[in-house]
Structures
1.
Amino acid sequence: MYYVSLLYLVFPLYYSLSGDYPFYVFPMTVMFAVAYLCLVLTKHPLWDNLFWFYLCFYVSFVTLMGSPMMSMFAFFLSNLLTWRFSEDKVTSFRYCTFYLVLLATLYPILVSADVSTQIFLLTMDMVCLGMMYAMRQSIKRAKIENELNEKNASINLLLAENERNRIGQDLHDTLGHVFAMMSVKSELALTLMKHEAYDKAQNEVQDLHDITKNAMQEVRQIVQALKVHSLEEELQILSNMLELAGIDLTIKREEMAMGKEQEAALTMALRELGNNLIKHSQARSCRIELTEKDGWIRVLVEDDGIGFEQVTGEELHSIRDRLIRYQGKVAIVSAKQPTQIQLDIPKGEKYEDSSR
């Protein structure tokens, strides 16, 4: 990234020794290499500025006094701006001096009648600027993606931790007293059997059987609850996720009742929309509105993110597949500014009537 380009310093060093360039280009080039490496390897505001100004001076001077070909050394500057000073704004003093260097390297166009030289200089400056800004945007996108990935990872970790705590508490509350009762009942049954009170021992064993049967049912309910959240729970989870992601959420909801299967499908659809919102939308705010009309439940999800570049009809296919089983629908009402996605699903009663 930084060091491969140093190979190009061989050319001014060689030409200064061969006599094609003035000999003073040799020590200037050595100082250029030292300044460049110091900028790469060290960080000190004062020295950074001094070394930067020297690099700008060198590129301008050797281009004007040596050869127009030396304008290629402007790539050293663009490389540093792209990677070493990636936090600088395009209006910073380094960028301004870089623009001045490019203008200075274009001066030979005014004094040279060689068309090939003019084309070369213009091409070099355009390529240098184009590559720098392209790499700058690429780095910015990669940085945003990394931040999103880190944020998503932390959100997933927190959610998993909360879920583990909840599961642990549920199991403790459900099974803790069950095992205590089973221990007492089994000890009592053994004691009764030792005293040949078999009828009473049989009653205790029957109680043990009933306790274990009820415990199994409660465990099944816990496992089922892990698979599917209620709509209220899912909205709360979604609110926590968006808060961790720095997205403001507003929920407007009417009181409504629906079938369990429809609620589960709607819950999973909201979960997927929430994940997409966090990972891809770059939104800062989101609004969810739940309404009921004529036996249909409508969910409108709106955000101020980047939206969809082009709507082909293939978007949100997994949500569509999930809702179609219950005659539900999903539609992109607005692709961007704001992005609006609408979910429609019939209440349980309507679905059951239509399926008979």
Note: Residues 115-194 form the longest helix (80 residues).
2.
Amino acid sequence: IVFAISVAVLCYISYKLAKISFVSETLEKYERILVPIVFIGLGIYILIENGTIQTLLNFI
């Protein structure tokens, strides 16, 4: 239940932020740069959090 409420709150906040013209114009202008940075950062975070990088370094 907490997860569903948190997702709903985040969706509502995102919707309200997208309605602000300055924010939406800036995001549209830099989306080709921001989206890959966010996904790469998320991937690196997941690798570090799960200890995958340390495991790979131990193999070397």
Note: Residues 47 and 53 are 6 Å apart (CA to CA).
